[in-house]
Amino acid sequence: MVYNTADIVVVGRFAGPASLAAVGATSSLINLILNVFLGMAMGSGVMSARYIGAGDDNRLSKCVHTAIMLGAISGIAVGIFGFFMSEKLLILMDSPADVLPLSKKYLQIYFLGAPASLIYNFGAAIVRSTGDTKRPLYILSATGIVNIVLNLVLVINFHLDVAGVAIATITAQYISAVCIIIRLMKIDGACRLHFGKLRINLSEMKRILLIGVPAGIQNSLFSFSNVIIQSTVNSFGSTAMSGVTAASNVEGIIYTCTNAISQTTMTFSSQNIGARKYENLGKIYMRCILLSVLIGGGMSAVGVIFRNQVVGIFSTDPAVIEIGAARLAMVLPFHVFCSLMDVGGGQLRGMGKSFEPMIITLMGSCGIRLLWVFVFFPKNPTLTYLYMTYPVSWSITFFVLFISYFIIKRNILKKENKL
Question: How many CB atoms lie within 10 A of CB 146?
């Protein structure tokens, strides 16, 4: 998140509103393309945690080496696709003419870093599945600083505009990929990476994909709905795009913090499923819900109170600040439901159920957003009315996921008792 936020702050401050809009307009498109493969990384983390809980070192080793190979192959494929399709995809999103060339340049450079991004995410998911969340944090903290410094140097000193922040981002991504590989090569136990063992194990790939593909499809469909909303925002012009970009990054910071709780519930649930300690599932879910409310609710309250100031970090343009602050005032009071929705999906995936949260999110979140944009929004075509789709879709999806947890847990216990 720091990578993207640093890009937006630097171009917003030192390159102008058009550059800010150009970088911001790419976020939902990047997520749409990458999220299927990031879901696969999630699947590798779930399966690694499952094998750790079950004490199955043989399958754990095969899972680790398969996951890294999947990350590398997926990254190359995404990089090639994204580089050559950037302009066409931006045109489909109705990007304004004054923003399109800058957005295309940023996207093409950004996608050159896709192999590093996916290798890092697959590797980090495995490291976190062991309970080690500190080293991925250290790696991203260090490379985040590298990204910020390069942003400032390339934009201010060399005047590279959006190309400068894109180059800085992919440089940091490749450094983080190398660092996570080094960590995997030094880790103790069956999770240790050996280059001689790198190959695709079909049975482990199948297990990873069974968890990861539905999660990735869910995230991509979620991003697709955001792409539709972003396309609608684009119709309001570059100033509106800049304001929404700034506000979206504030929301993204909160989401990233609470998404860590979703990753936690997924890892802990998977380990306990592997160890057949089903009595811990309820404790894990309820405590993660509480943490999400405290962290997400607290950060959202701060964001609402200081909305003008936080948007002002990204831009000094009064019109941009006004639009961004209005969005935060509308969305952040309900953002806790987004956090709770995410935790619900993570809990179900940790329990080995990835298809169910995908369908629920597709119908409850994506479906509602598309219905809102194409049916309700035309009757009141204002940005404020457009924003209302977020709290409505978040809250409905969370409640359905919450009920689904109890149903799925009961079915798991019934099946276990029969065995």
Answer: 16
Structure tokens belonging to residue 320: 């941009």
Contacts of 218 (CB under 8 A, 6+ apart): 39, 345, 357, 358, 361, 362
Determine what percent of the chain falls in helix, strand and coil, rounding each to the nearest 5. Answer: 85, 0, 15
Tokens of 307: 């909305």
Q: Tell me the pLDDT band of 419, cut-offs 50, 70 and 90.
A: low
Locate 216 and state its tokens: 């990735």
- How far apart are the C-alpha atoms of 359 and 357, rounded to whole Å? 5
pTM of the model: 0.78
Q: Under a CB-based contact definition with an 8 Å cutoff, are residues 269 and 350 in contact? A: yes
CA 402: distance to chain centroid? 21
What DSSP state is assigned to residue 189? S
Q: Write out pLDDT tens, residues 387-416.
A: 899 899 999 999 999 999 999 999 988 887
- Tell me the CA distances in angstroms from 21 to 58, 108, 289, one per residue in order: 49, 16, 35
Please answer whether residues 57 and 190 qualify as being in contact, where contact means their C-beta atoms are separated by less than 8 angstroms. yes
Tokens of 138: 């250290």
- Summarised one tens digit per residue, pLDDT across range 136-157 is 999 999 999 999 999 999 999 9
**Does residue 38 contact residue 196 with C-beta atoms inside 8 Å?**
no
Report residue 365 as tokens.
């979140």
The C-alpha angle 130, 135, 136, rounded to 5 degrees, equals: 90
CA neighbor of 208 nearest in space, from 318, 332, 349, 346: 349
Q: Distance between CA 255 and CA 332 in Å, rounded?
A: 11
Please list, in sequence order, all residues whose beta carbon lies within 8 angstroms of the beta carbon of residue 363, skipping any fewer than 6 positions away. Answer: none
* Per-residue tokens: 75: 């990254």
- Can you tell me the distance from the alpha carbon of 261 to that of 289, in angstroms, rounded to the nearest whole number? 8
Tokens for 84, please give them: 């050559």
pLDDT digits (tens, 9 = 90+) for 67-80: 999 999 999 999 99
Q: pLDDT digit string (tens) for 116-130?
A: 999 999 999 999 999
Distance separating the N- and C-terminal Cα atoms of the chain? 45
Q: Among candidates 344, 320, 324, which has minimal Cα distance to 332?
A: 324
Helix ranges (H only) for 153-280 are 161-186, 202-234, 238-274
